[in-house]
Design brief:
The chain has 330 residues and is mainly α. 64% of the residues lie in helices and 1% in strands. A two-stranded antiparallel sheet has the order 1-2.
Length: 330
């Protein structure tokens, strides 16, 4: 709000501001008999009445820009106000660096607001790659208080693809995962980086080192589903190579032998069996050691795995029963 709109710490109504004397506010039309009229504050009602007036007149002026700022402060989710603000900024050739600064605090206070992130993208796209560092740092700030903010992650990915800044992104993923190994958003970003970064050569080029990275994380916290999913992603559309990588079956055997937090390891074994993987005797014995059945080896291995999972993961018992019925016999 500008200084003219404030008097002794109090907001001055638009009707008392000289610069708005020529504008006739347009009230909201709820029809003759509104069923459940909304109890707007007087400030909100008046601000939107004046906004409707300038909007209908298509007035793209400095005072209209200031009006949208006040309207946004009352409701940051009003997409019509944001869209009109963009039209005004274009007409006035507004200072977009200043606009980005204006957005910073609003974004901090409304970090899950679609309209704000869309407006931010519009500005960054016009400003170009000189804002890359600022925008990556800003999303980093948002993640410090909400590590899984979908809007911020989507925006960060757009910045990387549209404007650049890939150089330190894998290291940033390392940092996030080291801080919280269960941060599935960081794992998702890591896969995004190795598959999209023009500096790394793609998933196939990164596969060997990333398999080692995922396995290390699995051994640290085998109950964490994220590195297991990441490991599968490294072999997307190439399940045969997944089954033939001895490191994959080895980590499964290690987890099963430990007999603790083995649900995801068993699930991996089940997936491998589905793709005609031929298990070793050691792996079969490790599975049988987890069974409560008196003679587990009387049934095929995939059925034994599903039976164990039904008991170990009762929340998805029906799913494991379905897997048991649809898996090929081994």
């Amino acid at each position: 709000m500008n200084k003219q709109a404030v008097k002794e710490g109090e907001r001055i109504p638009f009707s008392e501001r000289p610069e708005w004397a020529d504008v006739r506010p347009v009230p909201q039309d709820d029809g003759p008999n509104p069923v459940v009229p909304i109890a707007y504050t007087d400030e909100f009602s008046e601000t939107m009445d004046y906004f409707r007036a300038v909007y209908l007149a298509d007035e793209r002026s400095p005072r209209a820009l200031q009006l949208t700022k006040e309207a946004i402060s009352l409701n940051a989710g009003n997409y019509t106000v944001w869209q009109f603000r963009r039209l005004i900024l274009e007409a006035l050739i507004g200072d977009l660096d200043e606009e980005l600064h204006f957005l910073d605090q609003i974004t901090r206070e409304n970090a899950k607001n679609y309209q704000i992130w869309h407006h931010r993208r519009w500005i960054a796209e016009k400003l170009g790659n000189h804002v890359v560092s600022k925008e990556l740092e800003f999303t980093r700030e948002i993640f410090s208080s909400d590590a899984k903010n979908y809007h911020a992650w989507s925006y960060r990915q757009w910045v990387l693809q549209a404007l650049g800044g890939w150089e330190d992104e894998l290291a940033y993923c390392d940092e996030l995962i080291e801080d919280d190994i269960f941060n599935n958003s960081a794992w998702n970003q890591r896969y995004f980086v190795i598959s999209r970064s023009p500096l790394l050569g793609g998933v196939e080029a990164m596969r060997d080192s990333e398999v080692a990275y995922a396995i290390k994380a699995i051994l640290t916290k085998p109950e964490n589903e994220s590195p297991w999913r990441y490991l599968r992603g490294l072999y997307k559309n190439d399940v045969i190579s997944l089954a033939n990588d001895p490191r994959v079956t080895s980590v499964c055997l290690d987890i099963l032998t430990d007999k603790t937090d083995y649900i995801h390891a068993l699930n991996m074994v089940l997936d491998l069996l589905h793709h005609h993987y031929q298990p070793s005797d050691d792996l079969k014995n490790a599975v049988d050691a987890l069974s409560t059945e008196p003679n587990p080896s009387d049934s095929c291995l995939s059925e034994r795995v599903c039976s164990i999972l039904k008991l170990a993961d009762p929340m998805r018992a029906n799913y494991w029963e379905w897997r048991k019925a649809t898996n090929p016999a081994h």
